[in-house]
Amino acid sequence: MSRKITIHRQRSHFTDINQLPLFASSYRRSPQVAIGSAYRHFLLRFFSERTSIIAIVLLCLSIFSYLYFLNNAILNVVKRKNVEQEITELNSRVIGMENKYISMESEISLERAVALGFHEVSKPLFVARQSGVKSLSLNNEI
To answer: What is the DSSP string of 89-131?
Structure first.
């Protein structure tokens, strides 16, 4: 009595193109299996190449975006420092002008005005706006 022992080969999912048995001896029995394995080989190769290209493009895009935004951040920091320095300079100019204004204001007196040629007016004229009229006129009354 002879017994036939059959060993079933377990199919595995191939991740590497080189591991894919394109025309292995176990697949030579039927042409459909050979065509199916060739089709699987083609799909695996196609998608692995396509995935590699997509990964490379995404990597390049990521690197470009990183460099672009890093450059913008550095330029913004430099601009901010320049603006802060300009604000400091303008504040010091304003403080100098305020000090000059206060010192000039303290020098104003009636004697200084007379020395510069100003004199007191006996009958001053004022410009006033009348309530109903939309134009200006000379009016001697306050």
So the answer is: HHHHHHHHHHHHHHHHHHH--HHHHHHTT----SS--EEEE-S
